[in-house]
Amino acid sequence: MHAPMRRAHESPAEVDLSAINLNLLVALDALLREAHVTRAAARVGLTQSAMSHALAQLRELLGDALLIRGQGGMVLTPRAQQLVAPLKRGLAELRRALRDEPPFEPATATRRFTLATRDFFGSVLLPGALELLGREAPGVDLSVLHVDSTTFSSHLETGEVDLAIIVAPSPSGPGLRQQKLLTEDFVCVVREDHPTVRRKLDLDTYLKLTHVLISPKGGGVGAVDLALARQGLPPRRIAVRVPYFLIAPLVVSRSDHVLTAPRRLIDAFSKAYALKVFPPPIALPPFDILQVWHERFDGDPAHQWLRELVARAVNMGSENTRKLRGVRRAPAS
Predict the structure, then answer these.
(1) Which of 131, 138, 177, 148 is nearest to 292 (CA)?
(2) Which of 83, 47, 46, 86 shows the shortest CA–CA distance to 64?
(3) Nearest to 248 by CA among 188, 184, 319
(4) CA dist., res. 183 & res. 192, Å (int)
(5) Cα dist. 4→60, 64, 70, 97 in Å?
(6) Could you name the domain of life of the organism this protein comes from (predicted)?
(7) DSSP 143-181
(8) What pLDDT is stored for residue 17 in this prediction?
(9) Are 47 and 98 in contact (CB under 8 A)?
(10) How far apart are CA 14 and CA 82, in angstroms?
């Protein structure tokens, strides 16, 4: 039984898209192309009865017979004729959207990415990243935020932050993905004209010195303190705590304190601040630096490109620090 026809003076009813099964649109496209229930069913791999049922649903949904009997078989109603072209275009566009991820073209892209990190990791990453952006993606901008360990997981999930650059291990969270960017170790540094540290830094001297500790939260202990405790050695005196990595070398260059810090940080500042660099007199484990993102963006071409650019930028930073290691260093004790 056909659905009731709409009178000419009646306004078209609003179609509830949430009530439409995509399979019905595929069936409608086949019916409009074939104007024949059996052939339309074969076209999309349905049984004739299933296609007849789909036609009945479409008639009810659209308030039009769509196909009626004519002298040479079934013919399209005027309403059905109006649907042929837009339905064909719409399904073709939908197929393209589902088949192919929109390409990301760095050279012509205009967008902003947001990174959450600390100042040390930013100093390792940003020079190379900016160089690569200038060459490959001049329309792409970066925002760098201080990483907040209490909120960055949720910000990664919402997309407010694209990547977090942090020290391993990554805080656990649903849907978080990570990649190791580099492994870092420690060195010790004092000012070049330090009155008591000259050509070597032995453990006794190290423990007698006053120390600078980089403490982003203003408290706690560092890797050195944990290592001293493990070896049953007396604690060091922490004379100065600073919240930022980049302040610490400047503090040491104008005092008699010693700083134990990531090698790449010291490599970047040892020459400018006239610092002497030594291997630590105690064994300190290296640590990994990670980039972390949410699985929602695993397959996003722009995000994949960003992660690859960050990895390349870190490698560029590592190459540059290796070149700087020709600065004067004291021999190991």
Answers:
(1) 177
(2) 83
(3) 188
(4) 27
(5) 8, 7, 19, 36
(6) Bacteria
(7) EEEE--TTTHHHHHHHTS-SEEEEESSPPP-TTEEEEEE
(8) 63
(9) no
(10) 16
- Least Cα distance to 287 among 201, 172, 170, 176 occurs for 170
Single-letter amino acid code for the residue at 46: L
Token pair of 146, please? 């201080």
Q: Is 265 helix (H, G, I), strand (E, B) or coil?
A: helix
Q: Six-digit token pair at 35?
A: 């104007």
Can you read off the two tokens belonging to residue 264? 């790449």
| pLDDT at residue 243 tops 50 | yes
Q: What gap in Å lies between CA 272 and CA 288, rounded to an integer?
A: 26
Q: What is the spatial distance between Cα 122 and Cα 130, in angstroms, rounded to a whole number?
A: 11
Per-position DSSP letters for 29-89, written without gaps between them: HHHHHHS-HHHHHHHHT--HHHHHHHHHHHHHHHTS--EEEETTEEEE-HHHHHHHHHHHH
Q: State the pLDDT at residue 108.
A: 95
Are 43 and 33 in contact, with CB atoms under 8 Å apart? yes
Q: Are 275 and 191 in contact (CB under 8 A)?
A: yes
- Residue 22 pLDDT: 80
**Chain CA centroid to CA 123, Å:** 19
**Whether 166 contacts 292, CB under 8 Å:** yes
Check if the beta carbon of residue 137 is closer than 8 Å to that of residue 109. yes
Cα distances (Å, whole numbers) of residue 35 to 70, 117, 280, 284: 11, 62, 83, 78
Domains of the chain: 17-99 (1.10.10.10), 111-180+291-324 (3.40.190.10), 186-285 (3.40.190.10)
pLDDT at 331 > cutoff 70? no
